[in-house]
Specification:
Layout: E1 7-13, E2 18-21, E3 24-27, E4 37-39, E5 42-45, H1 48-53, E6 57-61, E7 66-71, E8 74-79, E9 84-87, E10 90-93, E11 99-101, E12 104-108, H2 109-114, E13 119-123, E14 128-134
Antiparallel strand pairs: 1-2, 1-14, 2-3, 4-5, 5-12, 6-7, 7-8, 8-9, 9-10, 11-12, 13-14
Length: 136
Amino acid sequence: MNIAGNRGFILMTIGKDTMIVNGQVAEIDPGRGTAPLIENGRTLVPIRAIVEAMGGTAEWDAATSKVTISALNHNVEMQVGSKNIAVDGGTASMDIAPEIINGRTMLPIRFVTENIGCSVAWIASTQEVVIVYPLA
């Protein structure tokens, strides 16, 4: 019996370069040691390994500084320095723009994951982010 109800779980802690994906420890930014951080009240992360853990892809276009995420039957596009976000052909805006920090593209995790159909919880006492996503 699957008590998780066909859901996957990702747990990240601010300042820690590993995450727990369905009970297994994995690096958030393999080989680079990048950890989630808080900026202007938002948690920013390097997104690739997180999206790939959900079975999706993240692509980077250096010429336009654009990130394209395809996961859980959704497509999200974000551009460094822009608060606009394209979701499944529509547009919306965020209150913080993706940035490049220490050579890594950092995206606001809540905006990305909620727009691909995940639930996100913040545990202030431990500075942890919990992402719950549907399994295929």
